[in-house]
Amino acid sequence: MVWFRRTVISGISSLLLLWPLAGCVSRTPTSPAGEAPAGGTSATLPLVVGAIPDQDPEQLQRLYTRLAEYLSAELGVPVEYKPVTDYAAAVTAFRVGDLDLVWFGGLTGVQARLQVPDAQAIAQRDIDAEFQSVFIANTGSNLAEIKDISQLASLKERTFTFGSESSTSGRLMPQYFLEQAGVTPADFGGEVGFSGNHDTTIKLVEAGTYEAGALNSQVWEQRVAEGAVDESKVRVIWYTPPYYDYHWVISPEVEERYGEDFIERVQAALTRLDPSVPEQQEILELFGAETFIPTQNENYAQIEAIGRQIGKIQ
Q: pTM for the full model?
């Protein structure tokens, strides 16, 4: 009888210890049709989405919260947005598995994929196959419009700021085009700046802190359209030639968690965003896109080559 009582008490104690954990078990991911994905397993963690912090944090929070809600409904799994502090942090978080799906620029996307074997570039905006940077100047600098790449030499001895050190449109490609014109960071007046993001680059040049700077053309055009730029103080002096830039990169580990077809399902959900549906149109507008289209790793070979050339990829 003593043995029986001990067994019963032990069993009850075990149940009491396990009972609070029952509410923490996540549901099994399902397809839009309500069926478990092929090869799927029970999901214990949400799909975590991240992005390089290239714009104002409040705008990014609004955008990726909307996107997480959309993807969760489309994929049948919990999805959450996790902000990061800077471009390098986005790459690190993807490498260590803290982020599963990340909106990278061209350079950071290549850096991330090189650190995570079998990671895939799966989607880009319609505008990302021919993306451009803009060079802007404070109107008080008297810098003239640049009509040929060789005229970038006029920026020598001028104060100049890039965006983030790891930005494709705010640093990598602008520096590449500058070097084609024989201009290196050492040629600028004083120490070259790194503002951290495109919005800050605009503000610094507008304020006259730097005479000129380079940034994402789309952010520039959006801020002008919003009336957020004082065009009496800052203006565009040059548009770069086009190049591949922003894209979604996904970790191969998601297929172990959600099923072997999950990467294809994510790609399909992104490319299915429909501007005729108001909630989805808002997401596309916040991205500055008409639609998302499929992409692949090979499209960023030029970015990788330039990254190695200027020492941003080892």
A: 0.79
